[in-house]
Specification:
Layout (H helix, E strand, L loop, with lengths): L3 E9 L2 E9 L24 E2 L4 E2 L7 E4 L5 E4 L1 H5 L8 E8 L9 E9 L5 H14 L2 E8 L2 E10 L2 E7 L20 H13 L13 H14 L19 H15 L19 H10 L12 H5 L2 H34 L6
Length: about 350
């Protein structure tokens, strides 16, 4: 059973839930000590008082704020426990928000909250059930180690979990790290999505999610203990120069499928067809297009002879033209006669 880190209560409106805070994670890393290389003697750091020039024990060490070079304000653990803050002895919930609204970069270490005694069982379960049903997380404030902190409360397997959070002004802006402007095509985005789909999983269980560094270090320690040759390190693959991004994506999809035992015969990222022009765009282009010039080619037999409908239309046009020509000539003759009759006779 992990040790209790902090004891207090969750303040939820007028509801109070007494809790104990315990660590939610474990560190299985292999740790090293410092040794003198000539005789393998342990090298330790000693805490020396600068004024008395002697080593002091942990019981003699306290906290303090250096006001000036010659004046230090001592701060005791009792002072920290009795901070004039409502969050000094309670985790005070301020709001409930969707988890997606919180940037993961703000979320830190996690702690389990254990109900402190039977009296806390019912309000503890009430808050856990309400959080689970609401699909939201609680944002709270609490004071540990001499400072007020922001926290996130959520539910994991019916147990309340508190995550430390950073304040908004503690997050640096990433704008200065943005890459230079480049164009990414729709085909390349579709290729990346195809690769992501090939690598998609429902969980993070499996040997690829094990700590290989710790395993490799354990093998080295075992080999040295038994005075055996050290295991050989694999040659790192040289980073490939990406000249054709689409080809690289297709090859990545093929390798991902092969690693999962899938058929790789058709592992290919296909380019998207170019989007067709809209009807309005085609209409606008047609309106701007100049009249077609005669090509000078001879008319085909079908164009000259045409069908029965084409012959009838040609005959009708010729008759109409003759009729219009006759009417125009008749009108000219009538006008000429009228003009002659109006002229005065000579004496």
């Amino acid at each position: 059973m992990p040790r209790t880190i902090w004891s207090g209560a969750i303040s939820f409106g007028l509801v109070t839930v007494p809790i104990n805070v315990v660590g939610a994670t474990e560190d299985h890393s292999i740790r090293f000590h410092q040794f003198h290389t000539t005789d393998m003697g342990r090298v330790r750091y000693r805490k020396i008082c600068e004024l008395e020039d002697r080593e002091v024990s942990p019981e003699e060490i306290g906290k303090g704020y250096e006001l000036t070079k010659t004046q230090v304000i001592p701060i005791t653990d009792e002072d920290l426990r009795n901070l004039p803050l409502p969050t000094a002895k309670a985790i005070e919930i301020d709001a409930f928000v969707p988890l997606a609204s919180i940037d993961p970069i703000r979320i830190g270490e996690g702690y389990y909250l254990q109900p402190a005694g039977k009296v806390a069982a019912k309000p503890y379960k009430l808050l856990a059930r309400a959080l689970g049903r609401s699909s939201k997380v609680a944002v709270a404030k609490y004071a540990w180690s001499g400072r007020e902190r922001l926290g996130l409360l959520r539910v994991k397997d019916d147990v309340l979990v508190l995550h430390a959070m950073r304040w908004p002004d503690e997050i640096r802006s990433p704008k200065e790290l943005l890459p230079p402007p480049v164009d990414v095509s729709d085909e390349e985005i579709e290729g990346a999505l195809a690769l992501m789909e090939t690598m998609a999983r429902d969980d993070l269980e499996g040997e690829e999610f094990q700590d290989r560094y710790t395993e490799a270090m354990a093998r080295i320690i075992e080999a040295k203990r038994e005075e055996k040759p050290l295991p050989e390190a694999p040659e790192p693959a040289a980073p490939a120069q990406v000249l054709d991004l689409m080809a690289a994506l297709s090859e990545s999809v093929r390798k991902a499928k092969a690693s999962r035992g899938e058929d790789v015969g058709t592992a290919e990222v296909r380019r998207l067809p170019k989007p067709e022009k809209t009807t309005a765009a085609r209409r606008g282009r047609a309106e701007k297009q100049p009249d077609a010039k005669p090509t000078g080619r001879k008319a085909s037999t079908k164009e000259t002879s045409g069908g029965k409908g084409s012959a009838k239309e040609a005959s009708a046009k010729e008759a109409s033209a003759r009729k219009a020509s006759g009417k125009e000539a008749s009108a000219k003759r009538t006008t000429a006669r009228r003009t002659t009759s109006r002229r005065p006779r000579s004496a």
